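User: Let's play a game. I give you a shape written as tokens, and you guess the letters that built it. Ready? Here's round one.
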């Protein structure tokens, strides 16, 4: 199923080192958008484990999904699913871009302080105000970043990706990957329908299946239409 519904452009290319580097060379032409979304999970029984997953911002236990997308939210370039919220965005970014030959530009939020390849809004200094020019620049940055927020919203239109995650912890990554694959399929389905009728049929069946309550009868109807 992951061959039909790859979760990102990077997943499609990562098995071939040459294609992987070529992909990032192509992506260097864009200013990619980055953002993250926290997802509530059930509290774990072990108190030590609970501390690992506790989010000080949300005051609940969470996992974090970190998105990197094309301008306008046109596609998912890369995604890190089920990360601990206590791992900073900038640390994860640097760890995963250390070995790239090409360093594309990114557009992020105020969490990405100190990274030369990321454009972010100006922070308000203590006991001072930012200038009018900086305020206007922040507005422009926010308007360009809206694409990643729209894409995250599309992911969260699936109930399993918006409400508290109802399944066992080991199901989290494959379920969210499936949702992201469906979102990508929906983003690109006009192209798919015009080039491959079989994949077009898969799209229709997947959308019907994913918008259900994921009960047994729906699953069987998807496998045996």
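Assistant: Ready! My guess for every position:
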């Amino acid at each position: 199923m992951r061959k039909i519904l790859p979760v990102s452009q990077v997943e499609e290319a990562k098995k071939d080192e040459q294609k992987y580097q070529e992909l990032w060379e192509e992506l260097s032409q864009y200013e990619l958008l980055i953002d993250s979304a926290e997802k509530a999970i059930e509290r774990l029984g072990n108190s030590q484990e609970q501390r690992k997953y506790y989010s000080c911002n949300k005051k609940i236990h969470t996992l974090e999904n970190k998105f990197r997308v094309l301008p306008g939210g046109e596609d998912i370039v890369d995604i890190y699913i089920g990360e601990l919220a206590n791992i900073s965005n900038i640390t994860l970014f640097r760890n995963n871009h250390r070995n790239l030959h090409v360093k594309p530009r990114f557009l992020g939020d105020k969490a990405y302080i100190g990274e030369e390849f990321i454009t972010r809004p100006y922070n308000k200094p203590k006991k001072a105000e930012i200038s009018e020019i900086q305020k206007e620049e922040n507005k422009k940055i926010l308007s360009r970043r809206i694409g990643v927020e729209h894409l995250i919203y599309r992911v969260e239109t699936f109930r399993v990706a918006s409400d508290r995650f109802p399944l066992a912890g080991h199901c989290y990554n494959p379920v969210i990957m499936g949702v992201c694959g469906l979102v990508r399929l929906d983003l690109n389905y006009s192209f798919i329908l015009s080039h491959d009728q079989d994949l077009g049929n898969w799209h229709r069946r997947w959308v019907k299946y994913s918008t259900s309550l994921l009960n047994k009868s729906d699953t069987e109807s998807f496998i045996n239409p």
